[in-house]
Specification:
Layout lengths: L10 H18 L32
């Protein structure tokens, strides 16, 4: 693995290169990248709330 001048592994550079390679391969296969407008979210409010009931072992 590559090291920078301080002797640390240069994982940031390797990660960027790896990501770029994956993106290029995805695009070559016909994949498309969708740009999401700023402020958009994947939150789906119509899914309903999740109710979690926590019981202690003495309540059983």
């Amino acid at each position: 693995m590559a090291k920078n001048s301080s002797g640390k592994k240069n994982t940031d550079k390797i990660t960027r290169d790896d990501l770029e390679n994956h993106v290029n391969a995805f695009l070559k296969k016909g994949g498309e990248i969708q740009q999401i407008p700023s402020g958009e979210t994947g939150f789906q409010p119509n899914k309903g709330p999740r109710h979690i009931v926590i019981q202690s072992s003495s309540n059983k």
